TrEMBL record, chains A, B:
The keyword Electron transport does not apply. It comes from Cryobacterium fucosi. This is TetR family transcriptional regulator. Residues 40-59 bind DNA. The keyword Transcription applies. One of its GO terms (molecular function) is DNA-binding transcription factor activity.
Length: 216, 216
DNA sequence: AATAAAATTACAGTAGCTGCACGCATACCG
DNA sequence: CGGTATGCGTGCAGCTACTGTAATTTTATT
């Protein structure tokens, strides 16, 4: 219209964001009401007032509208901070890193909660979610290896260092899944940080050599 | 034909088993050659000389032909042995239990290996595999809880006992995934038992309070 | 040999998804 | 302000996975 048409990030970008958000909200609402399997892409398109073709241009897949934007890699600054961390609690540090990346991803907590509830009750979505996470695991493994090297550990002194790195990532994934389930099922009264520490403590209790049984 | 037509398990059952095995073999061979995504159900049906409808009668899903029969719960005897185990190494015991159930499932090691190779390189199949495993997790959690109770641990003395049980199952799943990947990628020279013990040792090294760094 | 039960099949239809080409809105430039 | 390039939404035709149904064939029973 005026000589300065691009206010926010360009009118185009705003419209895109709006329709995308609308579609995601419509998808979640429909699925929470009728169940994921009974929601058709055409229904979401009707609610979002776009053609089916446009829907697939946005999400590529039906599941995409329900899962939201994929988890991003953390910013370089955070990565560096992790790599040069103290080293005492690598599992806690990694879990913290992942959590931070997840949190500032979806600003609306209502959407986030609805999404988690739906994913928990829908095996198909849960599986796809795990697949997405698995796609990040390789780069996270490299990150953990970097940290090992920064701590002076080498493949020479520890032949299975790469295995260890992969296992660290795997364990972090377990802790995240466990914690998310407990958090969004409402079974924990406390802060997310407390929950994560609780989960990690649980891991230690289980793997702790032979101390699980109570004294009495 | 004769007065005793049912030799093995009935001619019907044998034919069923034969066509099913044929379809599974055809599916694996085609996918290893052309890639999972480029194999169509019709191709498999042609190779197996059945109609598409019959294919879906057998497997219900395209993925089903590649994943094989779902993992079964172990026999009651094994379950009892687990529940009344010594208690020192619950993670090892559970991993052993799962492994045993997997092993006597697919007698042909060639098929098993081909299947794993395909699953590893196909995210969609990997995700579905994990979903299948997740379906067993609930009953495994109950099993672990039984063992806790058999050891005299109660929810009264340990309020988060159920959490601990769920975490044990989650960790066992991590160990299994890690080990399977390493095993079938050929990166381990040794027996499966050794590999499993190695993996669990890795978990302990990581979670061990503050011992991961070498002295030097 | 007659009959019951079970397996296989063809057929029609739905839903997810893709390539392609066309039209229109937006952004850019003189 | 007008012209133009670019991006985006859309319709359409088509492929593949999957399902219900009813008919046909194959195996089991008596």
């Amino acid at each position: 219209m005026t000589s300065k048409p691009t206010l926010d990030d360009g009118l185009r970008a705003r419209k895109r964001a709006a329709t995308q958000a609308g579609l995601e909200r419509a998808a979640l609402a429909l699925a929470l009401e009728h169940g994921y399997e009974n929601v058709t892409v055409d229904m979401i398109c009707d609610a979002g007032m776009v053609s089916q073709r446009t829907f697939f241009n946005y999400f590529g897949t039906k599941e995409g509208a329900f899962l939201g934007t994929p988890p991003p890699m953390p910013a370089d600054a955070e990565l560096a901070r992790f790599v040069h961390g103290t080293g005492a609690d690598i599992l806690g540090d990694l879990v913290g890193l992942i959590t931070a990346a997840l949190v500032d991803q979806e600003p609306d907590p209502g959407i986030l909660r609805a999404r988690r509830m739906l994913i928990e009750r829908t095996p198909e979505l849960l599986g796809r979610e795990n697949t997405r996470v698995a796609e990040l695991e390789e780069s996270l493994t490299l990150l953990v290896l970097d940290r090992f090297h920064a701590q002076g550990r080498t493949e020479e002194s520890t032949p299975d260092l790469e295995d260890e790195a992969r296992m660290v990532v795997t364990l972090a994934g377990s802790v995240m899944r466990f914690s998310m389930q407990k958090w969004f099922s409402g079974g924990f009264a406390g802060t997310p940080s407390e929950l994560l520490r609780h989960s990690i403590a649980l891991v230690r209790r289980i793997t702790g050599t032979a101390d699980p049984a109570p004294r009495g």
